[in-house]
Write a structure and sequence with these properties.
26% strand; 8 helices; 7-stranded mixed sheet; Rossmann fold; 310 residues; alpha/beta
Length: 310
């Protein structure tokens, strides 16, 4: 695709460029000693991007702060807008601030809407993300009234890995760690051929604040292998607590983990490993180098969507 170029700084960007047979242009993410960011697109001339279909891919670094990730994204997009990119597609696989899609407590910002508006303001024509949190209200299109926005499933990539690499994958019972994740559990179950998908439900003790979990429906998991599916793992507490309950209280044999966004705050992987999972699989929406986990790429599903919309 000679009229397309892909801008990026990581393996995900180059993977998408390969999927599109497009030119790949790197970004040099310079940081000044005082912490200011100065990302530079390594073009040879402005005409490399002017009037072209530009796919700008932003993958959060493993140790990068969320605010640097967001700011360098906007700074880079503003440069591409200034260089008059013909069509500017922003690939923002981990939609930072999407969890704050409502004013949950008086005085809080609706951060999701603010971030979405800035994407529009810097000239983006199409926005692509992967398994965002905004499904809780009305979906992603509400936040982007003036441009096209797409929320691609990252569960598909995880499920294909499990189906093709895990023996007797169809025998797993698939669980979400809470009711909100049930659609993801069902999607996983459909692809791997599992006949059962369910969810756990959180309960909080009003006196102690302690959180416990119970089955939403009566599912016999004794001696069975379980696959817990979620969108994000940050501290690892929710998914590890679910595994512990299913193993020790309900008699499950083994509990594996699959999730889209490896936020991985310190100690998260160690907490999950204490449940002795047969495998942990995640995607490359965020860079991760955790030992003993499988990382599958979302480059293929993103490339496929880009081919559809261009």
């Amino acid at each position: 695709m000679s009229d397309i170029c892909v801008i990026g700084d990581t393996g995900l960007g180059s993977g998408i460029a390969a999927g599109l047979s497009a030119k790949f242009i790197k970004i040099d993410n310079r940081v000044f000693p005082d912490g200011e960011l100065a990302p530079r697109i390594l073009v040879e001339k402005v005409e490399d991007v002017k009037n072209k279909n530009v796919i700008a891919v932003f993958q959060k670094g493993e140790s990068e702060s969320i605010n640097n990730y967001v700011l360098r994204t906007f700074l880079t997009l503003s440069t591409l807008n200034r260089y008059e990119a013909g069509r500017l597609v922003a690939v923002f696989p981990y939609f930072a601030y999407a969890r704050q899609d409502n004013e949950f407590r008086l005085g809080e910002p609706v951060s999701c809407g603010i971030v979405a508006k800035i994407f529009e303001d810097v000239g983006v024509t199409d926005f692509i993300t992967v398994t965002s949190h905004v499904h809780r209200i009305t979906g992603i299109t509400k936040w982007f009234p003036n441009i096209k926005a797409y929320d691609i499933s990252g569960i598909t990539s995880l499920a294909e890995f499990v189906k093709n690499n895990v023996k007797a994958a169809e025998d797993f019972i698939v669980f979400a760690p809470d009711g909100e994740g049930l659609p993801w559990a069902k999607e996983m179950a459909d692809i791997i051929g599992s006949k059962q998908a369910s969810a756990l439900e959180k309960e909080r003790d009003v006196n102690t604040g302690e959180i416990s979990q119970k089955l939403v429906e009566d599912v016999d998991v004794r001696g069975k292998n379980i696959l817990i599916v979620d969108d994000i793992v940050s501290t690892g507490k929710t998914i590890a607590r679910a595994a512990n309950m299913l193993r020790k209280q309900k008699g499950a044999k083994k509990v594996a983990f699959a999730y889209v966004h490896p936020v991985h705050s310190p100690g998260a992987l160690e907490l999950m490993r204490k449940e002795f999972p047969p495998f942990i699989v995640t995607t490359d929406t965020i860079e991760t180098s955790g030992k003993g986990i499988e990382v599958v790429s979302v480059a293929k599903v993103i490339s496929t969507k880009i081919k559809e919309i261009l």
